[in-house]
Design goal:
The chain folds into two domains: 40 residues, Irregular (Zf-an1 domain); 191 residues, no CATH class. The chain has seven helices and eight strands, in the order E-E-E-E-E-E-H-H-E-H-E-H-H-H-H. Helix 1 runs antiparallel to helix 2 and helix 2 packs antiparallel against helix 4.
Length: 266
């Protein structure tokens, strides 16, 4: 293990700074987060190249800049990983509620769809936010994440956990980022879950005593929980990156998520 030169935390997979040559943990890997003493320019050009890819694979840019982006583009490997992750998310809860399918199939389809939407939109928000800033960004399955997802599902059956934790993978991002860009990319996921929870809240107030209203409560719960869980200011969670970027944004997101989750228990 190597000790982070900023905080002293030991890590198995340290990040080496290309500017100062130091080794740092996940939290302090960016130059701005470890007070880099190397030749790091925080005022690097912000423009991106805007244009479109031709059928032959070439890029036609409207103007020339320092970055090239390919928004909303997916590789075959990424589509495969997203499909597997989504299949896991859909299959696990179906095992728990499959007996209701013959009684109320719309309920089962609704629950599975809400959970799938909470997962896929969260990851796509990170991906698209990064791509719009000129970064390479693709979803990748995680062995530990898959194991954690399966474990949380079985713990849910024994009432050890109140809700299933969805984490089969994450969006991998590559490219030079400053603190502002890092924060914007990180908040995109939780913000998407908060937005979904608010939409479900509106649906609940419109149709409270109905199947749709009941599903809306579940939609609020799962999305508010995922947002709050990812906002934990620790380790590799989105919350740590957002907290380091703008504590006011982090606090606002955490409070809104907490209130939405609290609503489902009232």
């Amino acid at each position: 293990m190597v000790k982070c030169e900023k905080c002293g935390v030991e890590t198995y997979m340290p990040f080496r700074c290309n500017y100062c040559g130091g080794y740092f943990c996940e939290q302090h890997r960016l130059p701005e987060f470890h007070d880099c003493t190397g030749k790091y320019d925080q005022t690097k050009q912000k423009n991106v190249q805007v244009g479109e890819y031709t059928t032959s694979g070439g890029f036609y840019g409207n103007y020339s800049t320092s970055r090239i982006i390919r928004p909303y583009w997916f590789s075959k490997k990424e589509l495969r990983d997203l499909a597997i992750g989504l299949l896991v998310i859909i299959t696990l809860p179906f095992f728990k509620i499959w007996s209701y399918f013959t009684i109320d199939p719309l309920f089962v389809i609704g629950v599975v769809s809400i959970l799938a939407g909470a997962f896929i939109l969260h990851e796509l928000a990170h991906k698209f936010a990064a791509q719009r800033l000129g970064m390479w960004a693709e979803f990748r399955l995680s062995t530990m994440g898959l194991l954690f997802t399966f474990l949380s599902f079985f713990l849910l059956q024994t009432s050890v956990l109140p809700i299933m934790i969805v984490a089969p993978g994450a969006v991998m991002i590559a490219g030079l980022m400053n603190k502002n860009e890092y924060g914007k990319i990180s908040i995109a996921g939780p913000a998407t879950n908060i937005a979904q929870a608010i939409i479900y809240l509106v649906i609940f107030f419109i149709t409270p005593a109905s199947l749709l209203g009941g599903l809306a409560v579940y939609g609020i719960e799962i999305n508010a929980f995922l947002a709050l869980f990812n906002l934990i200011p620790f380790g590799i969670f989105d919350g740590m990156k957002i907290f380091n970027w703008d504590k006011r944004v982090w606090a606002a997101a955490a409070v809104i998520s907490g209130l939405l989750l609290l609503f489902t228990f009232v």
